[in-house]
Write a structure and sequence with these properties.
There is one protein chain. The protein is of the alpha/beta class. The longest helix is centred in the N-terminal third of the chain and has 23 residues, at 2-24. It is globular, with a radius of gyration of 19 Å. A six-stranded mixed sheet has the order 1-4-3-5-2-6. It folds into two domains: 1-30; 32-191, Lysozyme-like (3-Layer(aba) Sandwich). The chain starts with a helix and ends in a 12-residue tail after the last helix. Helices cover 37% and strands 15% of the residues. Belongs to the N-acetylmuramoyl-L-alanine amidase 2 family.
Length: 203
């Protein structure tokens, strides 16, 4: 009887471990990344490592056309990279991560490379810049896209890219090189209701 009881307890413990592991990885398992090779990115001119975990996540919108299919979204990301590299003379696409209307996450500079998205040296070096393809001045992204953004932020914590106490900001909160409406007058109030958003950075 004792052996059966011990065996039953062991099985229950194993099941608990499996469930906990599954739950712990649930956000990341729900995020579909598109690698640079998959969206046919150009090689960066240079890159600077960024130490993780990061204390900030900055949300942007591209303020341009939306996309709904993988082909169209990949083209939008390539267009952004070309504009940033050829128009601005930057080393690569400015954003770390790009969310398309196809509900996939396109890897720009990635979690561990300093971006050029914030208009602030400090935030470029200490935050992940996440942009959503489209203009969200007068409307919100789809529920699916917002869900991907939330999952991506949780995944960032789970995978050690963001601190558990990271602060969520909109581009307009951090830009030092002039005012901006980014991430849009409709999207910005939405992210203000999310966990981790603070009106002011703590001293």
């Amino acid at each position: 009887m004792r052996i059966k009881t011990c065996l039953a307890i062991c099985i229950l413990l194993c099941l608990c471990v499996i469930i906990n592991v599954a739950n712990g990885g649930s956000a990341c398992s729900d995020v579909t990344y598109v690698t640079r090779d998959e969206w046919n990115a150009r090689d960066p001119k240079a890159r600077v490592d960024m130490v993780n975990p990061l204390g900030f996540a900055v949300v942007h919108h591209t303020a341009g056309s939306e996309c709904t299919t993988p082909d169209d979204c990949a083209q939008e990301v390539r267009n952004m990279q070309n504009y940033h590299m050829d128009g601005h003379g930057w080393d690569d696409i400015g954003y770390n991560l790009v969310i398309g209307g196809d509900e996939r996450v396109y890897i720009g500079r990635g979690w561990d490379t300093v971006g050029a998205h914030a208009g602030s040296t400090f935030f470029n070096q200490n935050s992940v810049g996440i942009t959503i393809i489209g203009d969200y001045t007068n409307k919100l992204p789809t529920d699916g896209v917002l869900r991907v953004l939330k999952q991506l932020l949780v995944c960032g914590v789970e995978s050690g890219h963001l601190t558990e106490q990271y602060l969520l900001r909109g581009h307009r909160d951090v830009r030092e090189s002039g005012p901006t409406a980014c991430p849009g007058d409709t999207l910005y109030p939405e992210i203000q209701t999310w966990p981790h958003f603070l009106e002011q950075c703590p001293d």
